[in-house]
Amino acid sequence: CMVICWFDKVDDGPDVDTGMWVVRPACAATHSPEYAIIHIDSIFQAAHLIPMYGHQFVSQDFHHQDSYNTFQAYYVNKYADHHVFEIAF
User: What are phi and psi of 64, to 5 degrees?
Assistant: First the structure.
C-alpha cells in the first residue's frame, strides 16, 4: 500500500506558456488536504511535479520535504521522460 495526496487540475487545458498541466492539492470540505491509501498495483505512472515559485525568493533554509506545505500549485512535468510525455499530452 501507499499513501498518496490527491491533486486537482487548475484549468481545462495545459498552461499556454509551458504546455504543462497545472495542478493543486485537492482539499476536502474542511479545507484539509485529501490523502488516500491505495494499493501499489493501481499506480499507473509517477508524476514529476515542478512547484510554481511565484515572485518571492525561496528561503535558503527551505527543505524539500516542506514543498507540499509551501507551494500552492505545481506543473506536471510532461518532459520528464517519454512515457510521461505520451500520457500527459
Answer: -60, -30
